[in-house]
Design brief:
With 284 residues, this protein is mainly beta. The chain is 10% helix and 45% strand.
Length: 284
């Protein structure tokens, strides 16, 4: 049984100067029309660049003939042996452009990988054990690559629990937490920030002081951290103080896990104050 050499089912619309062909009653895609076949009408033919659907073709260049609306046409099918020869020619073109021959001309060696240094030129580069360890990792959302030794690496959570060993980060890059004492933020380099809203929020009588202890949401490594107000209501007004000299008898020694605060109302009337505190230092 002879294989078909043409296809002409339905009609086609094509306009002068356009590469688009629209079919009516056609089944170009399912009938096996392919790029490389030729669209013919009224003595003119143009190679088909792509078959987009059963009713849409794109020509390799604009239609040179007159515009035709829902008119007869014919598609000349390219023989399979011609397609094979064209594919073989494309492979030969790739083999002779210098890219493959430049790789073939290298002398392979252990722990080496080829790379291109220019058009048609290649060389070998070291592929170290450390590089192979990184290439062997499986990525993931919210992860980063962390070296764990001279020739080892792991995928580490970007946000999680920070940690150090001998001053070298061994955990996540950032850590965030909260509890009844406030919130805290840590970074892998040892920095820590703690804060709490409304450590004090009450009415303070005229010429009266208040003080207390803020148990921190996360402890610092030592007492060398700074504490200050993040926001305070009325504290900046005349006669109001936020200072250590107003700490009363309830104040105890400052520790890595607890900070002291004090406030004084020097006005002649009672005032309502809100005190938000922030502390900055190191967790390691």
């Amino acid at each position: 049984m002879a294989l078909p050499t043409t296809y002409n089912t339905g009609t086609a619309t094509v306009n002068n100067g356009s590469p688009t062909v629209t079919g009516q009653g056609t089944t170009w895609l399912t009938s096996g029309i392919q790029a490389g076949d030729f669209f013919w009408a009224a003595g003119q033919s143009v190679r088909i660049l792509s078959v987009n659907s059963n009713t849409s073709l794109t020509l390799a260049y604009n239609w040179p003939g007159a515009s035709r609306a829902a008119d007869i046409y014919e598609i000349m099918l390219t023989p399979e042996n011609v397609r094979v020869l064209a594919s073989a020619r494309a492979v030969l073109d790739m083999l002779t452009n210098g890219n493959i021959s430049s790789i073939a001309g290298l002398t392979s060696a252990a722990n080496k990988v080829p790379y291109y240094t220019g058009a048609g030129a290649a060389a070998l580069a070291d592929l170290t054990q450390h590089a192979r360890a990184i290439l062997g990792l499986s990525g993931g959302n919210g992860k980063f690559i962390r070296s764990t030794g001279a020739n080892t690496a792991v995928m580490q959570d970007l946000i999680g629990t920070v940690s150090q060993s001998g001053g070298v980060p061994t955990g996540a890059m950032f850590e965030f937490g909260s509890n009844a004492n406030g919130m805290y933020f840590r970074t892998a380099d040892g920095t820590q920030i703690c804060w709490k809203l409304a450590v004090y929020n009450a009415t303070l009588g005229a010429t009266t002081a208040a003080d207390g202890v803020w148990t921190l949401p996360a402890s610092f490594v030592d007492v060398n951290y700074l504490v200050g107000p993040r926001r305070r209501s009325n504290i900046s007004a005349s006669g109001v103080r936020l200072a250590a000299q107003y700490f009363g008898a309830s104040a105890t020694a400052e520790t890595p896990g607890s900070a002291l605060w004090g406030i004084y109302n020097g006005r002649s009337t009672s005032e309502t104050f809100r005190l938000d505190l922030i502390a900055e230092g190191r967790w390691r």
